[in-house]
Amino acid sequence: MLILTQEHCGFCEQAKEVLDRLAPEYGLSVSTLDLDSPKGEALAVRGGVPFPPGIFLDGEPFSYGRPSERRLRREIERRLKSVQSGADTLL
């Protein structure tokens, strides 16, 4: 999971707090990238993220702006169920 952030961004701080709560619960690895860096700018353009924070799940853009913990939690659980059901069919 990746968060594109920017200095003095209140929504970025909220996103970090939300992900800090969810990371241990779901065993997630969270990293941040400055939106103003060359890599951050390129990722924002490629992912269609017009302003921070941009949240990427498995390299795919998930959301930008004010983070929704409920929406993020639902998506994480959906992806986990999908992975688990795929693993069950492989056995």
Description:
This protein has a single domain, classed as Glutaredoxin (3-Layer(aba) Sandwich). It is 54% helix and 19% strand. The mean pLDDT is 91. With 91 residues, it is of the alpha+beta class. The chain has three helices and four strands. Strands 2-1-3-4 form a four-stranded mixed β-sheet, with helices on both faces. The two termini are 28 Å apart. It has helices spanning 10-26, 38-47, 69-90, and strands at residues 2-5, 31-34, 54-57, 60-64. The longest helix has 22 residues, at 69-90.
Distance between the termini: 28 Å
**Global shape:** globular
User: What CATH architecture do you see?
Assistant: 3-Layer(aba) Sandwich
At the fourth level of CATH, the homologous superfamily is Glutaredoxin
Radius of gyration from CA coordinates: 14 Å
The secondary-structure class comes to alpha+beta
From N to C, what is the helix and strand string? Answer: EHEHEEH
Q: What's the structural domain tally?
A: 1
As laid out across the biggest beta sheet, the strand order is 2-1-3-4
Fraction in beta strands: 15-25%
